[in-house]
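We include this case.
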Amino acid sequence: MKWCSLLCPLVVMQAGIGGVWGHVKRGSEQNATLYAYGANASAWPIAYGLSDGLLYIAQNPDDTAADLTPMYWGLPSITDECWIVNGTFVNGTRAGSLYIRPETDNSIGVLPYARAAAVDGIVTGFALFASQLVYNNNTELEAQFWASSTDTDGVYALVWVEDESEVGSGSFPVVVKGSES
């Protein structure tokens, strides 16, 4: 009986303290900048190519000579229901949604509309796992982003690589992370 009289108040106190400090999950981010981290790009912003709608890794995301402009991103968390990453230009104009574009050698680009593809009833898309951008490919989280060299010095195309044997010379893997502005 003494155990019960000593143990019950401790259990009640623990439950009360636990309720006050509930578990905090990392949530989605709004007006975030995407950065690439890799061998030749340490925290380089990801910019939008005005001429082709594709994304590029560049030290200067506002490089008019390379036809680039910076963007802000709405980044969902993997715990959110909607896994669509939407981009907005710095002037507030909506650009569209992040998408792997197979017709352009798996370049990462922005489509002018939100698109979530269903595969056997499972929605695929991009979201944050902690601060890292990942892709849900039929319930598997993947991060196969690469920087592919371009004709412009210091500017790399952001591409999705499933087979490393297809990687071109001067390319390197990158981790893409989001950070709220």
